[in-house]
Design goal:
Blueprint: E1 2-4, E2 7-9, E3 12-13, E4 18-19, E5 25-26, H1 40-64, H2 70-90, H3 104-108, H4 111-129, H5 133-170, H6 172-175
Antiparallel strand pairs: 1-2, 3-4, 4-5
C-alpha cells in the first residue's frame, strides 16, 4: 500500500486489467499504457481500415487499365455470340478458349473479405479482453462495412452484367441478319 495524501490506495496490477482501491478498472489502452500497439482492438481497427482501402483498390483497379471503349466491347461480345451461333448451326467445333494469365488485381480480390473478417474477429477478441470499447466498435464496424460493401459491389456488377446480356439477347435477331 502506498499513502497518497490522507487516503490509502492499494493498486493491484494484472497483465490484463489494473484495479485501484476505488474499484475502477482500466484496460491496456488507458492513459496508464499509452502504447496502443499492444491492444488487439487497435489491430482490429487497422485491419478494418485496410480492408476498406483494398475494397476501393479492387473497385477502381480495372478502370485504371487501358481498355477499348464500351461500344467496342459490346460489339465484340455480340460478334462472338454470332460466330458461336453459326458454328453450332453448321456443326463446327468451337475453338478452345485462350488461357489468360492472372494479374495481381485478380488476387487482390481475396484481400478485402479476409481483412474484414480478421477485423471483426479481432474486435470480438478485444471486447472479450475488456479493452477500449472504441477500438472494438470502430474495428468491427470497418471490417463489417468492408465485407458488406464488397458484397453489394459484386451484386451490382452481376445485375449490370445480366442487364447487358438481356439487351444483347433481345437483339439476337439482328445478329443473324446479313444486311445493314
Amino acid at each position: 500500500m502506498r499513502v497518497v495524501g490522507r487516503a490509502k490506495m492499494a493498486t493491484i496490477v494484472s497483465p490484463q486489467v489494473s484495479v485501484n482501491g476505488l474499484g475502477m478498472t482500466t484496460a491496456y489502452s488507458s492513459p496508464a499504457d499509452p502504447n496502443p500497439l499492444r491492444s488487439v482492438g487497435f489491430w482490429a481497427l487497422v485491419s478494418g481500415a485496410l480492408a476498406l482501402v483494398f475494397v476501393f483498390v479492387v473497385i477502381l483497379g480495372p478502370s485504371m487499365q487501358t481498355q477499348p471503349s464500351v461500344g467496342t466491347q459490346i460489339g465484340e461480345i455480340a460478334g462472338e455470340i454470332k460466330r458461336s451461333a453459326w458454328r453450332s448451326f453448321l456443326g463446327l467445333e468451337q475453338p478452345a478458349p485462350e488461357p489468360v494469365k492472372p494479374t495481381l488485381l485478380d488476387y487482390l480480390g481475396f484481400v478485402p473479405p479476409i481483412l474484414g473478417g480478421l477485423a471483426v474477429v479481432l474486435g470480438v477478441i478485444s471486447a472479450v479482453r475488456g479493452e477500449n470499447w472504441r477500438y472494438v466498435v470502430y474495428g468491427s464496424t470497418m471490417g463489417g462495412s468492408a465485407i458488406l460493401f464488397y458484397f453489394f459491389w459484386w451484386v451490382a456488377l452481376l445485375v449490370a452484367g445480366v442487364v447487358l446480356l438481356v439487351a444483347i439477347i433481345e437483339n439476337i435477331g439482328d445478329i443473324f441478319s446479313f444486311g445493314g
